[in-house]
Write a structure and sequence with these properties.
Length: about 325
Amino acid sequence: MIKVWFNHWFSTSYRLIELMKEDAVRQIYVVGSNRQRESVIQKVCDEWYEEPDLDGEAYIDFCLEFCERHGIDAFVPRRNMTDISRNAARFEKAGVKVMVDDYAVIKLLNDKAETYSYLKDCEGLNIPDFYVVNRVSQFERAYQQLRAAYGQVCIKFVRDEGGMSFRKITEHADRMNQLKIYQGSGITYDMLTETLGSVAGFDDMMVMPYLPGNEISVDCLRTGKGLIAIPRNKGAARHERVEYNQDILEMTDAVMNHVPLRYPCNIQFKMKDGVPYLLEINTRMSGGLQMGCLAAGVNIPNIALNKMFGRDIDWTMDRTEKIVSYIELPQIIG
């Protein structure tokens, strides 16, 4: 039996845990924890605990003590991944394998500007133009230059997860019409400059061309047999198209050959005028990974778990194009 701990993850990890448990040889026993005591993930875990509200070194100490107390063999972290990667040697010394890449790699990829700079000379990879600003005057100059060259412009903070700070900039807005529709992630130029100008300085922000096409999310895992790469074309609807676009696959290879990522990761591209551009690289299993696994007939979570223990699991992929979606099933959790 392998005892695996998932700390605070998003709700779609429910299916990732199910996939990890589909092991042909060993029982996979999953311990789950979350800051939300009523999280639905508990329904798929063999043990369930509420997490304390801790950060930094205190959270690392909690994790190490938790692993020891519950006999954890493998730790699959999401919460505080960067801190955990920096302390990976402490977990290894305690006999716990951690599904996390090297700290230097994660630190680099968490900084989107540093990522773009690191990969700018990567042959065959399209990197969008960008500026890094932390003063309103810098933002105004960057905006005018990019708008003249590309039309619409967008911003996001250099350190961001899940695109929470992403905003598409518009010149003007019909304020009455905004009351009638979902505003989404748009913001007017005047409102943004007023907000940024209200402070002396702000965290580093990227200013770049807005890429209006679909997002292509590629779920990846490097294995002894080769690279697993499943591209999901994500539109506005719930369904996604799994299609093996050669340009996307070649850019994915370029990234994976340039960045030493051992565990499941997710590379995102965005289209503009039919050309894919690198958006970001996430060093964890994505929220939609289970959709790609279903379409391609390959179990990335289980293959990755076995890889941690030095076991190569044979795999094949169905590379035919498929459209995949999902339904929500109610669960009683209390």
